[in-house]
Amino acid sequence: MKLEVRNLNTFFEDTQILKNVNMDVPENSVTALIGPSGCGKSTFIRTVNRMNDLIPTFSHDGNISLDGVDVYDDAVDVVDLRKKVGMVFQKPNPFPKSIFDNVAYGLRIHGEEDEDYIAQVVEESLKSAAIWDEVKDKLDKSAMGLSGGQQQRLCIARTIAVSPEVILMDEPCSALDPISTLKIENLIHKLKEKYTIVMVTHNMQQATRVSKYTSFFLNGEIIESGLTDQIFVNPKEQKTEEYITGRFG
Ligand SMILES: Nc1ncnc2c1ncn2[C@@H]1O[C@H](COP(=O)(O)OP(=O)(O)OP(=O)(O)O)[C@@H](O)[C@H]1O
Question: Whose CA is nearest to atom 5 of ligand 1?
Answer without folding.
Answer: 12
